[in-house]
Each structure stands twice: as structure tokens, then as C-alpha cells.
């Protein structure tokens, strides 16, 4: 098993996947669990993740993704859909989980719940949608890192028509909207970009120690 930094250096945004190679159910379960365990503001996770394997649906999604081959050729497609809006129910449902998992009476969580509601519920609708979309990127980062450690290739993608994705996946009726997509599978030997040296800004220009 590679070290974590070796895995980050190994991974790249795969441009061409081997359509014959499929992620095993065991590895897919690990990727799903790594995504589920991602950090999120207040732990609320205001999004839903669609793991799309159906070839017909992915053919339609490819048309809404500027024809990019990763959409159909990767083993699986993770579509992150964030909440378009929300109210106190988002916090209440989370506190119900907290109460159940930690065996804490609901009454003991009221003050914490009221605090979260005071910070989130009054936000303008546009701010709510932006906040929810940002949370998906935390989960995407976890997914990419986990895939790298498992030597599963990935490609995070923003090049798509969100409204068309929403229609195809029937997200409107769930008050969700597509925020980011991740194709996962195994690189094709024909993908020349796998041989490119990784380019990131040097530490000196990216970090300041205070």
C-alpha cells in the first residue's frame, strides 16, 4: 500500500478510462463509506450522492456533459446533488440521528439545535444553496483521496449542464441540484495525461507560516 502522499502524487484527473474494467462491489462499498464519513459544517451533510452505473442514464448524462467520455467509460459515476434550500427540518433530522447514535435525549440537544437554526435558517435562499454546494466539495475531496489510496482512478468534473442533470435524475422534485460529478474507474493505457508530471504551486508561494 502506498503512503498517503504517494497516493496523492499517483492520482490525476483521468481523461480516458478503460471501459472494460469495473470497480468491485467491495471497493465500491469502501468508496461510499469514505464519502459518508466526510467532514461537513455542523455535520449536517446537506446533499445526496447518486452512484450511477446504468448505461442508458449515463449516455444521456454524457450529452449534458459536453460529450466527455469519462461519463460513460468510467466504472461508476458519483453525482453530488446539494440542497437548493432548507429549513429547520434539516437540523431536526440531524439531531434525531445524534440522539439515536449517542443515546442522548432530544431535549438535551435543543440548545445546540437552536444555535444551528439561528445561524442557518435565516440565511437568504441563494446563500443557503451556495453553502450546501460547498459541503459537497468536502465530500469530493475525501472520495478522491480514498480512491487514490485504493489505486482507483478518478476525475472530478464541473463541465456539465446542471439543469439537464437535474431533469434526468429527477432532482427537482427532491429539492436538489447537481453541484459536482466524479467519474471513477481505471485509467486506459491510451490516456497520455497519466504520464504528465504533476504540477502544483510550490510551498513557498502557497503557504505562509505566521
From TrEMBL:
Alphabetical list of InterPro entries matching this protein: NfsB-like (IPR033878), Nitroreductase (IPR029479), Nitroreductase-like (IPR000415)
Origin: domain of life: Bacteria
KW Chaperone (keyword) present: no
Cofactor: FMN
Record-annotated Nitroreductase domain positions: 9-186
The keyword Protease is assigned to this record: no
Keyword annotations: Flavoprotein, FMN, NADP, Oxidoreductase
Signal peptide (residue range): none
MF terms (GO), sorted A to Z: oxidoreductase activity
Similarity comment: family membership: Belongs to the nitroreductase family.
The name this protein goes by in its record: NAD(P)H-dependent oxidoreductase
Protein source organism: Muriicola jejuensis
Amino acid at each position: 500500500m502506498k503512503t498517503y502522499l504517494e497516493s496523492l502524487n499517483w492520482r490525476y484527473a483521468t481523461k480516458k478510462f478503460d471501459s472494460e474494467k469495473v470497480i468491485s462491489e467491495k471497493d465500491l462499498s469502501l468508496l461510499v463509506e469514505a464519502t459518508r464519513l466526510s467532514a461537513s459544517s455542523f455535520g449536517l451533510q446537506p446533499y445526496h450522492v447518486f452512484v450511477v452505473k446504468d448505461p442508458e442514464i449515463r449516455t444521456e448524462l454524457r450529452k449534458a456533459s459536453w460529450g466527455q467520455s469519462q461519463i460513460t467509460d468510467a466504472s461508476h459515476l458519483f453525482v453530488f446533488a446539494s440542497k437548493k434550500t432548507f429549513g429547520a427540518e434539516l437540523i431536526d433530522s440531524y439531531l434525531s440521528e445524534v440522539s439515536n447514535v449517542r443515546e442522548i435525549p432530544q431535549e438535551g440537544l435543543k440548545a445546540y439545535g437552536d444555535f444551528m437554526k439561528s445561524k442557518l435558517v435565516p440565511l437568504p435562499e441563494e446563500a443557503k444553496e451556495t453553502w450546501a454546494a460547498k459541503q459537497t466539495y468536502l465530500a469530493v475531496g475525501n472520495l478522491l483521496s480514498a480512491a487514490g489510496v485504493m489505486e482507483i482512478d478518478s476525475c472530478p468534473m464541473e463541465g456539465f449542464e446542471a439543469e439537464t442533470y437535474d431533469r434526468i435524475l429527477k432532482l427537482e422534485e427532491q429539492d436538489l441540484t447537481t453541484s459536482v460529478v466524479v467519474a471513477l474507474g481505471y485509467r486506459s493505457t491510451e490516456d497520455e495525461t497519466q504520464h504528465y508530471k504533476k504540477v502544483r504551486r510550490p510551498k513557498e508561494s502557497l503557504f505562509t507560516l505566521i
